[in-house]
Amino acid sequence: MGALRRLVDADTGESIPYAPYAFSGEHIQVDKARVAAITESKEFTPSQKFLVLWWIGISPQGMAPLRATGADIAKKVGMTADAVGKINRKLLKRRILIERGRIGNYRLYRISPYIAFHGTGIEQREAVKTCNPPDIPGFENTSPSWLEAQ
């Protein structure tokens, strides 16, 4: 863990305590409402829900894709490559995963920046401009849509 640092409020000159998060490594910002809607939805199987959570944890920083094949992913999550491919295609159709490139015939994916993002708020707002919001059954978007794309 990093040392406690002190920041100074430019307006008041008062010290503002700051400390890094006590996570074991990198961390990301997650839209809890969208993740809750996915995990509570009856339209997703437990395996699909598990893979969504896995994608949240594994997607690289910014908009970079995960450079792994279905067989690579299957070994990591304890599924068959066919099961992973089928689930990824369903998640892609719902825009929960987005395609970010190809290696030969294999598509490279990452989690939608509407669901989770590793980067600054400005970078996330730019990222959501490049894709449509995911189709999540039961998700009630209560935030103004103009906020997401600004």
* Helix-strand string: EEEHHHHEEEHH
Instruction: Going across the biggest sheet, name each strand in turn.
Output: 1-2
Overall residue-averaged pLDDT value? 89
Kindly state the number of beta strands: 6
General description of the model:
The chain has about 150 residues and is of the alpha+beta class. Helices cover about 35% and strands about 15% of the residues. The chain has helices at about 30-40, 45-60, 70-75, 80-95, 120-130, 145-150, and strands spanning about 5-10, 15-20, 30, 95-105, 105-110, 115. A hairpin with a 2-residue loop joins strand 4 (about 95-105) and strand 5 (about 105-110). The longest helix is centred in the middle third of the chain and has 13 residues, at about 45-60. It starts with a strand and ends with a helix.
Concise synopsis of the structure shown:
The protein is of the alpha+beta class. The chain has helices at 32-40, 46-58, 70-77, 81-93, 121-128, 145-148, and strands spanning 5-8, 15-18, 29-30, 97-103, 106-111, 116-117.
Question: Keyphrases for this structure?
Answer:
150 residues, alpha+beta, two-stranded antiparallel ribbon, 6 helices, 6 strands
Layout of helices and strands, plus pairs?
Elements: E1 5-8, E2 15-18, E3 29-30, H1 32-40, H2 46-58, H3 70-77, H4 81-93, E4 97-103, E5 106-111, E6 116-117, H5 121-128, H6 145-148
Antiparallel strand pairs: 1-2, 3-6, 4-5
